[in-house]
Amino acid sequence: MESGAGKHWTEEEVKALLSVWSEKNIRKQLHGTLRNKGIFIYIAKRLQELGVCRDWKQCRAKYKNLKYEYRTVKYAHNSGDVTKTMKFFHDLDAILRYEPVTQLAAEENGRCSATEAQLNTSPTTESTQ
Description:
The chain is mainly alpha-helical. The protein has helices at 11-21, 24-30, 37-49, 56-78, 89-96, 113-120, 123-127; strands at 107-108, 111-112. The model is unreliable at 101-129 (pLDDT under 50). The chain is 58% helix and 3% strand. The chain has seven helices and two strands; from the N terminus they run H-H-H-H-H-E-E-H-H. InterPro entries: Myb_DNA-bind_4 (IPR044822).
């Protein structure tokens, strides 16, 4: 399958992305980390193992779009508008439900400690824990 920057994600590709994203070590590294290129390179490699050929930029863009759409629908539901829906809402809700709202807990002396931890720990070593 040919997947370029302008190609739409298939349902199977999104499901594969969600399965990788739902892993605890991935969620932990993505939360509160601003410089996350390395995480998305890892996610793209994992997706390639699952037969999804997307580069890290495409993975990051899809991640951001899904997260934005989820939050839009969630806000609408909380405001009483249950007419707004999205295809993978329940999957995303399971992934994002426990994500803290503030990032203050992850910050130490004005710097995000998650970024430093990410640089010192590869995703493959965390997945074995």
